[in-house]
Each structure stands twice: as C-alpha cells, then as structure tokens.
Design brief:
transport, 22-stranded antiparallel beta barrel, TonB-dependent receptor, 36 strands, 5-stranded mixed β-sheet, Maltoporin, Chain A, 6% helix
C-alpha cells in the first residue's frame, strides 16, 4: 500500500468518524479524568487529550487482551499482541519504547526492578479484573517520576458493589491458529474465573480469581513446530473500611503467575523451535491507601510493595544442555500527596514520593547481588491547576528527583489550554520534561556501566478539540515534537568482544500527529476512529509504524444485542535479525498489514447472563509482526458471563 492510499484511507476514516475505542462517553464534557492532576478533574478543564477506556468499552471488546485493546489507541503500538500468547510484549507511545512509558495500577507505579529496562509485563494483567484504563501521552515525570517520559497508562481494577453481596463467574474458549495453518479451529484458548464483592455497612470487600491456558500454535515461524503454551493465574483481594464520611482505608493484595514455553530469539533463525525453553514469572503485591477529605481538600497516601521472581530454562546449542537462570526484584513505593483548594478556580497538589528497588540474578553467565544492586529515590513535587471562569486553564508543576546515586534532577511542565465560550472548541498546548534513570541491570550486570547518565526527554505538543452537535460529534488533533538525549544503548566492541551499556551521543527526535474522531448517530449507532503519524530517527524507529489507522462501528441491534466491528491498518516497519555466520545485525523491512475483528454480545437473561462470540483477523491475513515469529490468523472465541 503506497503513501497516497494510506493518507486517503486515513482522511476518509477520519471524515466518517470511525474507530474502535473512542466512543461518545469518552468525549463528553462531563467526563472526569485523574491522570494529569492525581485528582478527579472534569475533562473540559484538562489541558491534555486523555483517552479513557471505560467499563462499557471493555465489555464491547470481550475476548481481547489488555495489550490488544491498548494497541487500538492513537499513538500506541503494542508489539507481540498478535503473536503466540506467551510472546513477550513491547509497547511504544509516540515513538518511545517500553522503558519510557509508565504503567500504574490503581494509581500506583508497577515495575520489574530486575528487568533490563524496568518495564512492566502487561501479560500479568487479566482484562477481566480491569474496570477502566486511562492513557495520558507526553512527558509526565512531574507527577509520576522516572519512566514517565512518553506516556502513562493508568489501569483501574474493579471495585466493590454497593449491595451486600454480588459477583460474577465467566468462561470462554477459543481457537489459536496461524493464517498459514490448515485451520480446524479446535478449542485451544481457555479462560475462566469468578469474583465476589460487596459492601456491608462501613466495610467493602472484593475477591477475584482468574485462570487462562492457551496452546495450539508455535511461537517460532516454521513448519511442523511443536505448539507452545502459556498459562496465567491471577488472584486479587481488596478490603476497604470507611469509619466516617471524610476518612477511608483501602487494602489490597494480589498474586500473579505466568508460565510459558518460548522459542529462540531473532539471533538464531537456523534453529528457532526449542522444546526445552521454559519461563515462569511470579508476582506478589500488597498495599495500603488511606484517604482523608476535609473542607478545602484531600490527603492521600499510596503505598505498595511487590516482589517479582522470574525463572528461565534455556537450551544452549553451544553446550547441548539446558541453562538455568533466576531473577528476583523487590520494590517499595510510598506516594503521599495533598490537594488544597485555594479558591473555586485554583488548587494545588503538594506531594512526596519514595521508591526503593533491589534485585539479584543468578545464571551461568552472571551473578548480581541485591546487597549491591539497589537504589532509592525521594522526590518532592508540586502541581498547580487553575481553571478560570472565562475558559482559560493552566496546569504547571515541578519535581525534584533526589537519587541516592545520581543526586538531584529537576523536571517541570507547563500546560495551558483555552476553551471558547462562543464556539465548542478547546485549544491546548504543553511543554514538559522527563528523565529515566538507568536500571539496576544496566548498572550492575556484567554488561553494566556505573558511569551511565540518566536519559532526558522533553516534549512540546499543541492541538485542539471540537465538540459539535451537542457532543454527538467530537474531533481532536494533536501534534507533538519529542527530543531525547543520553539515550541508553547496548554496544559491543567487535575487536575486544566486550559488551556494555552506554549513552548515545547527540539528540534524537520523534514527532508526529494524532487525530481522533467520534460520531453518534443515535443511541443505536456509533462510529469512531483515529489516525497516527509517527516519524522517528532511524536509531529509534524499529517496529514503530509511520502510519496507523483504527476504525470501528458500534451497533446496538436490539435492547439486549450489541455488535462491535473494528478495522486496523499498520504501516510498514523495520525489524532485524542477527546473522551469526557474519556477526552482523541485518535489517528487515516488514510489509504493512490490515486486520478486521468483530464481536457480538447478547444479554441472554437481563442483568444475569451475557454471552458473546468474537472473530479476530476475519480475513485470515498472513503477516509478519516480528521476524522469525508466528502471528495469529483467523480465530474464534465464545464465552459467557453470569452475574449474581
């Protein structure tokens, strides 16, 4: 598909208002968002285009994973979500890699401190436990600290019902086939789970258990390879106590287990299918969050502690044996902040955040001790939000990062916006800075470099948002320009055969445009869409499409039957593989691809039981997401959800 066709299809889709995850509820002015101030703020007063995927929207996408849903948001690419279920996933926002994007669960940062890039594994989160997802793009280190350089993904888990006892049980099964396979659509994708929750007087509670098992296709691309499996178990418990109207306490604990088989990586295409390779990840998190509301404000503490342990069995062709490796991390996060309303138009958020991370690793090639590999930060920060009665709004703030290794580092943001009273239009712009400190692995592993400098980012963006026809038609466009310096890289000296993490010299640029549109004909028919243009320099552009289009139709056929149809176009990308014979990395151009997915959901018994059927990759397109790895072809899924 040439560029003219891409631009034509993007403009046509924008004009008709098609896209999957932007519906009218996302763009209504009365909608509340929290990501850009940490407190509830009417979307009309926010200077950011924040995408909120609601519980209603998640139900329309029944059968899809968190990664697949995120990949339909403008400016986001989740690579690996079209591969086998166990494939690790990288997510890119505005050209930024996983390490430059911060994931929050119920407002608390989550990370794997033993990982190379401190990134969180999206595979650990079951979509059945998610209530909503809020995505704020752009640098956000002022509010959220290191890692929030190109975007923040705030995942809110489900809450307790108001009645004494409530709950649900669900089950689904589906196929797991490649496009090239002779499809028999045998059931190879199984999910089931239940939850119990409620509120009794001043106490609320919630308990959930989810399990999934997927097999049927090989991770490696090739003929007659064995099927790789992925299994996930998730358990969450929440408990809340509200002694007064002003004070409440919330506790949570959750356990996540992920097991999978995996095949050789891109550096060994001659022997990709390996039966001995296995991985197991376990995560345990718990936390405590008191909140106190007073006349002019609110005081909140988020505290969370987590342990992640990963074990790998990896077959080595050099020794003809299986090598064992173990990685373990411990993290603590305490974020205390206070909102004080100086007037009806101005409030200030003053806070301080403490984080501690440590890791250890043991394998045939490396040993890292948590006695050495640890660091901590203590960050005071302030944000002021001014919302005038004439439509002028500004969000500005600063954070001083105090790192026990890197000392002090200041980041800040300025985000003005203006809504015209006479016209349904809002103009917005922002300038923000961010930073990313090296991970413990990049500092203390055999490839570590204690002289690494923190990576620095700055982003400027500007755009507008329209709300027409009493909010039936919404349209927004944002242009951004991001620069990063001290970019982390992995360098191998081909003379001495030594490898080390380094900072690249120079400044690297990512820029682009994002447009989103939605139109509600009536309560039965909704059309929505987005288009992303992302241009990055060659050093940053691997696997990031320059053009991407998402489109969808939401149709309520009857009062109990709902149909969702979505289309996605992903432009050409560049991947690479390691040619071991010539000791060289060889770039590979990947063709563009198009996907069409459909879901039908029917309320079989009102307020009691819902059934759904979905088909992904409807036209069975055969494409490459990653060199050397399989992608999913046409697959079906059936399921039900019973409420009590």
């Amino acid at each position: 598909m040439n560029k003219k066709i891409v631009f034509a299809s993007a403009i046509a889709l924008a004009s008709m208002g098609a896209f999957a995850q932007q519906n009218d509820s996302i763009n209504k002015l009365e909608e509340v968002v929290v990501s850009d101030s940490k407190f509830a703020l009417a979307k009309e007063k926010s200077g950011k285009v924040i995408v909120k995927i609601t519980a209603e929207e998640l139900s329309k996408r029944s059968g899809q994973s968190v990664a697949t849903i995120l990949s339909s948001v403008a400016g986001i690419e989740v690579n690996g979500n079209q591969s086998a279920a166990g494939k690790n996933q990288e997510f890119y926002i505005r050209g930024g890699r996983s390490r430059q994007n911060l994931v929050l669960i119920d407002g608390v940062p989550v990370t794997d401190a033993s990982g190379i890039s401190l990134q969180y594994d999206l595979r650990l989160i079951p979509v059945e436990q998610v209530e909503s997802i809020e995505i704020m793009k752009g640098a956000a280190s002022t509010l959220y600290g290191s890692g929030a350089a190109t975007g923040v993904i705030n995942i809110r888990l489900k809450k307790s019902a108001e009645k004494a006892i409530s709950g649900n049980a669900y089950m689904s099964l589906g196929s797991q086939e490649t496009a090239a396979h002779e499809n028999n659509y045998a059931p190879n994708d199984f999910s089931q789970g239940f939850s119990v929750n409620g509120t009794v007087n001043k106490v609320n509670y919630l308990a959930t258990l989810n399990h999934s098992y997927v097999t049927g296709m090989s991770e490696a691309k090739g003929d007659n390879f064995e099927a790789d499996t992925a299994e996930k178990l998730n358990a969450t418990v929440k408990f809340g106590f509200k002694p007064t109207e002003k004070l409440n306490f919330d506790f949570f604990a959750n356990f996540d287990l992920f097991k999978n088989n995996f095949d050789n990586s891109f550096d060994n295409l001659n022997n990709p299918d390996v039966k001995e390779n296995k991985a197991r990840s376990e995560q345990f998190r718990f936390g405590f969050s008191p909140k106190y509301r007073y006349k002019k404000g609110e005081f909140v503490i988020y505290s969370a502690f987590n342990t992640i342990e990963r074990n790998y069995d990896i077959f080595s062709s050099w020794t003809n044996s299986v090598n064992l490796s173990n990685y373990k991390s411990n993290s603590a996060n305490v974020d205390a902040f206070n909102k004080y309303s100086i007037s009806d138009e101005l409030f200030v958020v003053l806070g301080g955040q403490f984080q501690f991370h440590q890791m250890n690793a043991n394998s045939q090639y490396e040993a890292i001790s948590d006695k050495t590999a640890h660091f901590s930060t203590l960050d005071p920060y302030i944000t002021a939000v001014y919302n005038s009665k004439i439509g002028f709004n500004i969000n500005a703030g600063a954070r001083l990062n105090v790192h026990n290794i890197y000392g002090n580092h200041l980041v800040y943001n300025v985000n003005p916006s203006f809504s015209l009273k006479e016209l349904p239009i809002k103009f917005l712009t922002s300038y923000s800075t961010a930073y990313i400190t090296p991970s413990l692995y990049q500092l203390y592993s055999p490839y570590g470099n204690l002289t690494l400098k923190p990576e620095e980012n700055s982003t400027i963006e500007a755009g507008f948002e329209l709300n027409l026809l009493q909010n039936k038609l919404t349209f927004n466009t944002i242009a951004f320009h991001r620069e990063e310096t001290n970019t982390f890289d992995f360098f191998t000296d081909m003379i001495t055969w030594t490898s080390q993490y380094i900072n690249r010299e120079g400044t690297y640029v990512a820029k682009g445009i994002e447009s989103m549109v939605a139109y509600s004909f009536n309560k039965a028919i909704k059309l929505s869409g987005n288009y992303s243009f992302t241009q990055t320099e060659a050093q940053l552009s691997r696997l990031i499409p320059k053009h991407k289009v998402n489109a969808a139709v939401d149709l309520r056929a009857t009062s109990r039957t709902f149909l969702h149809l979505n289309y996605q176009f992903v432009d050409k990308r560049t991947d690479a593989f390691y040619d071991s014979a010539n000791y060289a990395v060889v770039p590979v151009k990947l063709d563009a691809y198009k996907l069409v997915n459909a879901t039908i959901r029917h309320e079989l018994f009102k307020d009691r039981m819902t059934v759904f059927a979905s088909v992904s990759n409807l036209f069975n397109e055969d494409f490459i997401e990653l060199v050397g790895y399989n992608t999913k072809g046409r697959n079906f899924k059936l399921g039900f959800n019973f409420l009590f």
